[in-house]
Predict the structure.
Amino acid sequence: MRYSTTYDLVQSVVILTVTPSPRPASDMQTIGRSFLSMKQRHGCLTAWLGLLTIGTAIFAFIFVFAVESSPSVWVPLLLNLIALVCLFAIWNWNFWGFIGYCVICAIYFPIQLALGDSLYQSLGPLIGAGILFAVMQIGKPMDAWSQLE
């Protein structure tokens, strides 16, 4: 093919480099399926997990710098640190994180009562776990509960 001017040559090169090659249909279907299979977290779940994580970290920080060094401080500190690990597991879509967080909340309830907290203060972690379960159900069919591994 002969070009009459340099402009014709440049124009044909630009057209060849700018025009993408068509993808086979199977590649397009794979891309579509991979986009749909990406895990998505609802905004309410993100906000609630953020609040739980920040609150648990603050309470663990408070227990670290508590004046007492009695078991009444170390047991809640240990439970808060384990709860933080479980919350980070939930952030990473691990089912065991949710189960672990609920178990920690159930263990924490009688300990708080034994340490002299009121019933309302002791129910706080259990209510938080219940709200977490409810928020994980939002957005069916792509709710967070069905996406946990």
The two ends are 59 Å apart (CA to CA). Residues 43-64 form the longest helix (22 residues).
